Amino acid sequence: MENNCIFCKIANGEIPAATVYEDEDFRAILDLGPASKGHTLILPKKHAANLFELPEETAKKVLPLAKKLGARLEEGLHAEGLNVVQNNGEAAGQTVMHFHVHLIPRYKNDTVDVKWAQGTLTEDDKKEILGLF
Ligand code: 5GP
Ligand code: ZN
Description:
The chain contains three helices and five strands, in the order H-E-E-E-H-E-E-H. By secondary structure, the protein is α+β, with helices and mostly antiparallel strands. The model has no long low-confidence stretch (mean pLDDT 97). It binds guanosine-5'-monophosphate and zinc ion.
């Protein structure tokens, strides 16, 4: 547990939160400022600031859990879609530096904005990026 990390305190039950799911590795809670009805956060109990710090054994459990809880939310709330969002770093919109996954149920004509303007893949960028792998 990291000092002064709000999500460490919530994940480990020191600060109460509306918990929709809990197991030995994770707690899933309702977001306090939901983008849509049912907006849920999956928090690992062990502190990791972001995806790059997340241990492999935790990482491999995250997507199956997102699938399970996302399906329950979508079905139970009669949503018509679901965004699974995970921000890493301030530039990417991360505001709480404890890894978390957003489950955002989507409804027709809702006001959620998870979009970007399409750019162009240049030959130079393509070459540079493919050269990284
Ligand atoms: P980020 O921008 O870091 O990806 O997402 C942080 C999310 O945590 C935001 O959606 C915000 O509403 C939510 N949040 C911040 N503080 C609290 C809190 O104390 N309790 C709960 N339940 N959600 C929080
Ligand atoms: Zn933490």
